[in-house]
Amino acid sequence: MLPDLSRFGKKFTAASGIVDLMEDLGSALLSNPDMLMLGGGTPARIGMVEAIYSRHLRALVADDQSHYHLLGRYQSPAGDEAVRDQLAGLLNAEYGWPLDRHNIAITNGGQSAFSILANLLAGPMEDGSHKRVHFPLVPEYLGYADVGFSENFFSATKPALSLLPERRFKYHIDFDALSAGEALGPATGALCLSRPTNPSGNILPLAELQQLDTLAARHAIPLIIDAAYGLPFPGLHFDDSAAYWSDNTILLLSLSKLGLPGLRSGFVVGSPELIEAFSRANTILNLASGNAGPLFAASLMESGDLLKIPREILCPWYERKLESAQAAILQALEQVPCHLHVTDGAFFLWLWFPELPLSTTELYQQLKQEGVLVIPGDTAFPGLEEDWLHSRQCIRLSYAVEDDVMARAAEILGRVLRRLHGV
Amino acid sequence: MLPDLSRFGKKFTAASGIVDLMEDLGSALLSNPDMLMLGGGTPARIGMVEAIYSRHLRALVADDQSHYHLLGRYQSPAGDEAVRDQLAGLLNAEYGWPLDRHNIAITNGGQSAFSILANLLAGPMEDGSHKRVHFPLVPEYLGYADVGFSENFFSATKPALSLLPERRFKYHIDFDALSAGEALGPATGALCLSRPTNPSGNILPLAELQQLDTLAARHAIPLIIDAAYGLPFPGLHFDDSAAYWSDNTILLLSLSKLGLPGLRSGFVVGSPELIEAFSRANTILNLASGNAGPLFAASLMESGDLLKIPREILCPWYERKLESAQAAILQALEQVPCHLHVTDGAFFLWLWFPELPLSTTELYQQLKQEGVLVIPGDTAFPGLEEDWLHSRQCIRLSYAVEDDVMARAAEILGRVLRRLHGV
Fold first, then answer.
1. Nearest chain A alpha carbon to B107
2. Nearest-5° angle of CA A37, CA A324, CA A365?
3. Given CB atoms, is B15 within the 8 Å cutoff of chain A?
4. In this predicted model, what pLDDT tens digit does every residue of A111-120 receive, in sequence order?
5. If A72 and its partner were Cys, which of A68, A175, A332, B274 is the partner (CB 3.0–4.6 Å)?
6. Between chain A and chain B, how many beta carbons pairs sit less than 8 Å apart?
7. Mean pLDDT taken over chain B
8. Is A268 helix (H, G, I), strand (E, B) or coil?
9. Where are the alpha helices (H) located in B219-370, listed in sequence order?
10. In terms of C-beta density within 10 A (0-12 exposed, 13-18 middle, 19 or more buried), how is residue B394 classed?
11. Helix, strand, or coil (residue A4)
12. C-alpha distance from A199 to closest chain B C-alpha (Å)
């Protein structure tokens, strides 16, 4: 039987994009083992990288003394001191950021970190008011959409959109709209963006990021930068954009897209006061973070692999993959009205069908029937209250797949979309 | 800088017993490396068990193919299907419980599971009312106290208390008070108890557990049984009490007290509807559970070690430890007015000083000054609204320590308490 659920319970068990996605990833394969899985955020299997991780894993367990550190200890609230020192040192050496361990907390992965952080900074306030986390640039990560413990938790500013040559397009922060709206008023507790953006692979230029951070600081709210796909690791930036941190930013890092999602591990980099608050809430909700992730990260840092793998392997690998995926998709959709977002990073293609004669949720169902799993874009506009037709005309594809999977998927995508557009 | 925090943020960053405890465990040792650590819930280091875990760990990473399963995959919302099948099969074979994988979800440890569950079942309701999680028997685990996303989240029924020979005492559920109060009315969303109880090592007899579950079912609320220290694993039951599950109960299991807290892994066993709700909320808040815990558990299940280690090693080991710890403490406190709770399980001594001339928080500070870390009992009565002097007269000690640590701690404890009592 299912007992009465609280308001929180009803909210968290109602329809949710991220739950549908994670269920689909499991069950779609059960119902159709040949399903072409372009749906999730699962990182690619890259033999050379797996071999390096195997080496680290074997080294970690080679010494029986290390087993206790891996299995038998609880970490303190902010996590293993030595690992936090090590990461602070690395970020200082690499970028000159003036950090020490008090700027860093170990987390059980990016999703867990974001859900705690968002609820620390937004929701019902003690004075009876209600604050929201604001996305200055949507589309954004569908997994953000449901993490608020209260309703009406996010807001968003509609982006500007430029059409570019060769069927490309790009979203931009509409700074005028951002400043004119309520985003910088008392109803906002934090600004947040992912960089590169999931789903569109958009990377906010450094100058605009600084502008955004300055705006946020002027209004005494932090800027959360979710670097799940970004710098310094897994480093999936294909342009020359730089990493960024200031004492007004909260940087979320994760090991997942390095190819290590099973470790559920990441870091928050922020002011000591913010890190202290985060660690306390994390202790209450999770008691402690797991040991395997930070010890694995320590091993990667010690050898230099934590930055070497992104620079020497992951980034070139995904960039090559992007090129062939883009070519396959553009060719398959040659006759279909379609724009492809410029991909500066991450591992997704974001397709916009401006004349789509049905919703992307229906398109998603038709594609699934035909054996291709994608993400309908409807869920990628958290907090956007305005009804925007565009938000029902986009889909996300992961290209972190084998070339032949992408080729077959492109063929099906082309066939279905030609049929739908009658071309 | 610390930005404005939400109501949730203020609540979660205010004083918290569990945060103080986890911080103490880290920092007390930094400030005094000789500190006698009787404070935490860290399981004992047992060489024979560590050797077995080392064997499993080495086997898990021996095969390069398994590394991907450990590191590279996301689990589906309720967790790895094969591991859930395996645990269902084991519980069915062992206890005859009619379970399949749909009754089981994998969690990131007991604390994470409880905090999600509690907030699914209590807090603000859609009809505007507010429900609470009720503890029919306090003292209870201090880590429960702060997990509610809203205020006034727990309630508790004051226990009956029997004085027993040889300076022992024991808490009992006061079923009359439980039925007479509001605990079984519309303001309660679930009953909850740990079995054995942390901190007192109390094990609710099977007949009373059934009575409690029947009462709960009659009022259409579930009974949460937190078996973090209990059956089937880590199995720290020193009496002959049995494991219990019904389709009205939600059983929380964890690998931590087996000696594996670094894995942050456990299981929820409940109705399929409850498991579905839990998994959805867990996906939103944590995306997925980690892989190391369930794969380690699978390896332990396959070899039979998951139940063999508790029965053949842990339970006898802790029971021996309990005997020597009790003897040392009772002797050291011979002249001090003191009662010791009957310990039927877990690895704590719960001491009651009925003539203590100061609060246990002050006693805790004095003991820390003298080099012994214990837990003041004040935090162990979550939800009890009545002012009960008794709740400020108890402390918890862990006896999961070396014998000489316990001997030195007992000596200091005796000295400090004799001084305080002027004997």
1. A286
2. 30
3. no
4. 999 999 999 9
5. A68
6. 317
7. 94
8. strand
9. 272-286, 292-303, 305-308, 315-332, 360-369
10. buried
11. coil
12. 17
The β-bridge relationship of strands A188-194 and A223-226 is parallel
Please enumerate in sequence order all residues whose Cβ is within 8 A of that of B74, keeping only pairs 6 or more positions apart, or say none: A22, A25, A40, A42, A261, A262, B287, B288
> Cα(A56)–Cα(A385) distance, rounded to whole angstroms?
47
Cα separation, B292 vs B70, whole angstroms: 6
What average pLDDT does range A385-402 have in this prediction? 96
Å from A19 to nearest chain B CA?
A: 6
A98: closest CA of chain B, how far (Å) = 15
> Which residues neighbour A288 within 8 Å (Cβ) at sequence distance 6 or greater?
A74, A75, A76, A77, B22, B109, B261, B264
What is the ipTM score, two decimals? 0.95
- Substitution target in B279, B285, B296 with the highest count of A β-carbons within 10 Å is B285
How far is residue B340's CA from residue A354's CA, in Å, rounded to a whole number?
74
Distance of CA B386 to the CA centre of its chain: 23
Q: Mark which residues 395-414 of B lie under 8 Å from A by CB.
A: none
Residue with token string 């996305």: A135
Q: Does A68 touch chain B (CB under 8 A)?
A: yes
Question: Does any CB of chain A come closer than 8 Å to the CB of residue B199?
Answer: no
**What domains lie within chain A, and their CATH numbers?**
7-49+309-421 (3.90.1150.10), 74-305 (3.40.640.10)
The full 3-state SS of B65-110, as one line of letters, equals HHHHHHHCCCCCCCCCHHHHHHHHHHHHHHHCCCCCHHHEEEECCH
Before A186, cis peptide (omega within 30)? no
Show Cβ contacts of residue A80 under 8 Å, excluding neighbours closer than 6 positions.
A106, A291, A294, A295, A298
β A339-341/A168-172 pair status: parallel
A44 in contact with B at a CB cutoff of 8 Å?
A: no
| Tokens matching residue A130 | 């209600």
The amino acid sitting at B110 is: G
pLDDT at B78: 94
Which A residues 150-189 touch B at CB under 8 Å?
189
pLDDT of residue B282: 94
Cα–Cα distance between B91 and B93 in angstroms, integer? 6
**What phi and psi values does residue B236 have, to the nearest 5 degrees?**
-85, 65
3-state secondary structure of B50: helix
pLDDT tens digits, A43-75? 999 999 999 999 999 999 998 888 999 999 999
Query: Residues 231 to 250 of B: which have CB under 8 A from any A CB?
Result: 247-248
CA-only gyration radius of chain B, Å: 21
Contact B77, A23 (CB under 8 A): yes
State the smallest CA–CA distance between residue A357 and chain B in angstroms: 31
Distance CA A253, CA A90 (A): 14
Are B284 and A58 in contact (CB < 8 Å)?
A: no
Residue A205's alpha-carbon distances to A179, A193, A212, in angstroms, are: 18, 12, 11
Taking an 8 Å cut-off on Cβ atoms, the answer to whether A286 and B115 are in contact is yes
Which residue type does A71 have?
L
Q: Which residues of A touch B264 (CB under 8 A)?
A: 108, 286-290
pLDDT of residue B142: 93
Cβ–Cβ of B8/A149 closer than 8 Å?
yes
* B299 interfacial to chain A (CB closer than 8 Å): no
* Test mutation, B31, B74, B191, B256, chain A, max A CBs within 10 A: B74
B222 touches chain A (CB under 8 A): yes
Helix axes of B47-62 and B64-71: crossing angle, nearest 10 degrees:
100
Question: Which structure tokens are listed for A23?
Answer: 């269920």
Q: How far is A306 from chain B (nearest CA, A)?
A: 15
Q: For chain A, say whether B20 makes contact (Cβ under 8 Å).
A: no
Would the CB atoms of B290 and A264 count as touching at under 8 Å? Answer: yes
